[in-house]
Design a protein that fits this description.
Helix content: 25-40%
Largest sheet: 5 strands, mixed
Radius of gyration: 20 Å
Number of strands: 7
Distance between the termini: 45 Å
Number of helices: 7
Strand content: 25-35%
Oligomer: single chain
Structural class: alpha+beta
Mean pLDDT: 96
Length: 187
């Protein structure tokens, strides 16, 4: 990440909106924004699949689900945040399980890039599917997009829901319904 370019761009941006980048409250803003970018775009260049280490010796073959994984990303269309939660489920095959924290890390890495929610949901499912080769994967994301809340239609509180289902979750409606009931907390 080129922090010098980010600082120059922020200074130009401040000038462009009619602000004085040298006034006391803004003087250090370009540096602060550059440091912030290292954090919120920290997934750029990282390979999420490397997080998915297969643990040996386990024979679990039922749903494994992480619910309510906090999610923060930046809409690539307006560079405004969207935030919400991800729900990730898979059914192992052949003893191919991973540590549960690894699933949350995959969500974190892929979300820390300029994104759209639809692609984010698909990329999470694809990473898990490619490495774990499970019987099925299901990813659901619920998020509020500030580009809808504070600009454009200005409708705060609207949550966009996207889902991706692979394998048995697509093929078997009862399995999909069971996972959804876990996500909703009704089972």
């Amino acid at each position: 990440m080129d922090k010098n370019k980010i600082e120059k761009a922020v200074e130009l941006f401040l000038e462009g909106i009619g602000e004085n980048p040298n006034r006391p409250g803004l003087k250090d803003t370009p540096k602060r924004v550059a440091r912030m970018c290292e954090d919120i775009f920290g997934g750029i260049g990282k390979e999420p699949k490397e997080e998915l280490i297969i643990l040996g010796g386990e024979k679990h073959d039922e749903i494994i689900l992480l619910r309510d994984i906090p999610l923060y990303s930046v809409c690539e269309h307006h560079l405004l945040p969207f935030l919400g939660r991800a729900h990730v489920a898979y059914i192992p095959k052949g003893g191919r399980i991973t540590g549960i924290s690894k699933l949350a890390r995959v969500v974190d890495i892929i979300s820390r890039r300029p994104q759209i929610q639809e692609r984010l949901t698909t990329q999470i499912a694809d990473a898990i599917n490619d490495i774990l080769q499970p019987r099925g994967v299901m990813v659901m994301i619920e998020a509020e997009h500030l580009c809808m809340s504070i600009r454009g239609v200005k409708k705060p509180g609207i949550r966009t829901v996207t889902s991706v289902v692979r394998g048995i979750f697509r093929e078997n409606p009862a399995t999909r319904a069971e996972a959804i009931s876990f996500i909703k907390g009704t089972k």
